[in-house]
Amino acid sequence: MKLKTFEQKHDYEFIFIFENGETKCSDIKELVAKYLTPEELNTATINEEWGCLEFKNGAVDIEPNTLYKYCEVHALK
């Protein structure tokens, strides 16, 4: 399932919308803090071909199914 769009809310907190129409809100610090500083989060883009979330021109990415499952477990209210 591909990522369609996202919005950064604050630091590592993002809202994600997936191709099935579901919206998920999650803090992804646990996934990316080892690789990204808070200042680098603004490099986030979606790889149109794979539907994954990428940072730093693709140097760091999160596969969409991994991101979806992570959001299921780590959802913010």
Could you explain how this protein is built, in words?
There is one protein chain. The protein is of the alpha+beta class. The protein has a single domain, classed as NE0471-like N-terminal domain (NE0471 N-terminal domain-like). Helix content is 18%, strand content 35%. The chain is built from two helices and six strands. The strands form two sheets. The protein has a three-stranded antiparallel beta sheet with strand order 1-2-3, covered by helices on one side. The model has no long low-confidence stretch (mean pLDDT 95).
Keywords summarizing the entry:
3-stranded antiparallel β-sheet, NE0471 N-terminal domain-like, single chain, 77 residues, alpha+beta, globular
